[in-house]
Amino acid sequence: MALRPYWKGYLKLSLVTCPVNMTPATSESEKVRFHTLNKETGNRVVSQYIDSVTGKPVKDENEAKGYARGENDYVILSEDDLDNVALDTVKTIDIEKFAAADSIEWVYLEKPHYLMPDDAVGNEAFAVIRDAMKADKVVGISKLVIGRREKAVVLEPRDDGIVLWSLRFGDEVRPEESYFEDIEDEADSDLIPLVQKLIKQKTKRWSPDMVSDPIQESLLKLISEKKKALKPKKSTKSKKADEVEPKSNVVNIMDALRKSVSAELKNRKAG
Amino acid sequence: MAGQRAQWKGFIKFGEVSAGVALYTAASTSDRITFNTINKATGNRVNRVFIDSETEELVDKEMQTKGFEVENGQYIVIDPDEVAATIPESNKTLEIEAFIPCSDVDDVYFDKPYYLTPDRTGSDAFAALRDGMRKSKVAAIARTVLFRRMRTVLIRPHGKGLIATTLNYDYEVRSSKKAFEEMPKIKIEGEMLDLAKHIISTKKGDFDPATFDDRYEAALEELVKAKIEGKSVPKRKKIEVSKPNDLLAALRESAGMMMASDDKPKRTAANANAGNGRQRAARGAASKSAASKAAPHRKSA
Predict the structure, then answer these.
(1) Which of A1, A4, A14, A234 is the mutation pick for testing B, counting most B CBs within 10 A?
(2) What predicted TM-score, i.e. pTM, was given to this entire model?
(3) β-sheet bridge partners, residue B117
(4) Is the ipTM of this complex over 0.85?
(5) Across-strand partners of A11?
């Protein structure tokens, strides 16, 4: 499934430029998420902006970003203004340097994105940059404005595309020396072969099964059990009930849920 | 440990060996520019309140609860205690479940890095694990309850210590294979590849992320200043996409330009406006010295 790209722009190597798009490699969309509800009515709770002086609700179209130039004095910036910031790195990933593929410390890797051509016109140019990096075993170094910061980025050819990593800033990575200085330089040489033997026994190939989330599984189970408890209520009390009397409906659901939860908790403890 | 506070203290266990260890945050997120939300109609700041989506009345904090949407508009109420009950009791142990070859590590799963250090009693076992892993070229996969979630961490030797990186869950990561599966299969060979490799060879160098500077704030200040003064912001250079028919010519021209300026790759990558400076420098060098052309860097890798 193709995701909607979150950034579109250009990839550039010297005089070669091609249109590209980028999507994050990670997403929270599959994570079990809770909404905030009003206990009294069972309705969703939503946030609303109120004018700090007049106290009146603010219409969506009147919400704007303000850059503080003094106390209670703001310069309003539109998305177009922000888009016009005079940095080429807002729209262009110009590869300025190449470094050995394994030379970037892992602690600097912040967030991975997938980069690919955005238009057939750029397919070949993109492939040239990718394949040359692959052939030379290098990664590209560039910079890009992401989330209102200009970040160093690393481009790494992978499969038919490019993985683009945003990097952490120097002041975001704590110096390791103060943590590691007291640790022994060398291990007891008799112990190392034993450890290596153990390593050999316990070596496996990487698999995404290693990063399953048992708590999410439990939450999903909890939800589905509660959902089951909901179903009969729904058939006896029609939709009307929850329109006319939202309060009582919530109370009923709560009762039903309490029962199923206490059963669930007992099970859990017993298990 | 120079006053830093451990995020977590417990044990690391491999086989029957266990050592006391602590985790320290290795990376934090520094502040970025934030804006205030303003009511355009009045120029005033806004406050955020929480209201009932149907009745539009204010909802106090104590009347707010958590729910999960099962069908359109239908919610199941979930009590915080019930959520807490899903979290297994922590045994405070990073138990190594497997070692994986370093070449197998899929870094797109990386979340946050932590420095992993031994306490006084654990230092022998710690050093043995570290050196054994380094020699065998493996990383370790361990799990434990961290910050109220069951987290998988990838542990690897780093200097005298170990770094434990929390990994994102399987459902949070889209594989590169999937992401790129619909891309056209193009393989570049011959002159185009040689030219691109040559361009790369002239731009090769070391990169230290610690020296990188963010120019965004300064650029934004300039933008605001221009807006206040009613001036227009300098326009960015127009971007010209290389046409497929011109690609080879663009590569040749780039490579030619590079060769001419080949005497020393410029060390300005992390500096502002490197692009302009470099192009000017390249032109200048081109007129002077085709003779100082460095030996071809082409490798048969």
Answers:
(1) A14
(2) 0.81
(3) B22
(4) no
(5) A18, A93
